[in-house]
Amino acid sequence: MLETKWGLRLVSLILALFLFLSVNDVFGTFFTQEQFNKAEEVVIEDVPVETIYDKENLYLAGAPKTVNVRISGPNAIVKKTESMMDFNVKLDLSRDTVGDHKKKFKVEGLSDKLTYELMPNNANVTLTEKTSVTEQVEAEISDSRIATGYELIGQEVDPSQVTITGGEDEVNKIAYVKATLDNKTKLSESTTEEAEVGVFDAQLNKLDVTVKPAKVKINIKVASSSKSVSIVPKTTGSLPLGYKINKISLSDDQVELFGKRSVLDGIGNMEVEVNLGEITKDTELKEKIPLPKDVTKASPNEVTVNIDIGKK
């Protein structure tokens, strides 16, 4: 009997203790704290780099625009840092002068409970005297952009000139300033597109310079490929006995053909067939101009043939 009473008291004590801990969220606090302190590691990619130097008089080459940062520490702080991005990466050359330098990146604003690693950890950069030049921009449009049966007849760049700023050595290497269209759409009509300006040396290596404006508009003029050629009559058959041809004349002696340029270039003239087999008097015929393969249109598309005959 006594043992049963003590057993009931023990069970009651355990239940009361469990109820007390639950009401006071002791278990929740314990697990939350454990989760908070759990170690976590992430890599934050493409963190912008702030460069500090004499921007008025010097030009900086070789500095990366972004770096990756690996951070590790308590889970909650790592997650907050990753989402808020409340820290800065700096490359400080404020005390450096013209020349080549190897500088370490600095991180500011990270919690002291975090450890970090920069990738890369440092940068090899060059400071040079700043200089600027104004250069003409050349539009570069690939032949593959032009639709079959059409050709590029003109292009205009707006603005036609840009200001290029950089170190004196780089600026002196400038050989080409190009605005290259990267759109792949086939062109069958005139249009305007935007293109980024690139600056290159004589070997077409891209130079480390700043261009303003960085993008320009290119007005592209496209028209159907065409060629004007002579029209000549080609007779078939023979006039009835006792008749002769005095003259064959055409209403038009030239025709403009439209189509693939390589085909047009191979055409010297266009023949219009005239059948003499059933003609016994002066006759006027309407004849279509035949279209060779890959020629899409002719203007005019037909001619009037006047046949003047007489008796022998």
UniProtKB/TrEMBL annotation:
Name of this protein: YbbR-like domain-containing protein
InterPro entries assigned to the protein according to its UniProt record, in alphabetical order: c-di-AMP_regulator, YbbR
One Pfam family of this chain: YbbR
Gene3D superfamilies: 2.170.120.30, YbbR-like domain
Organism: Macrococcus lamae
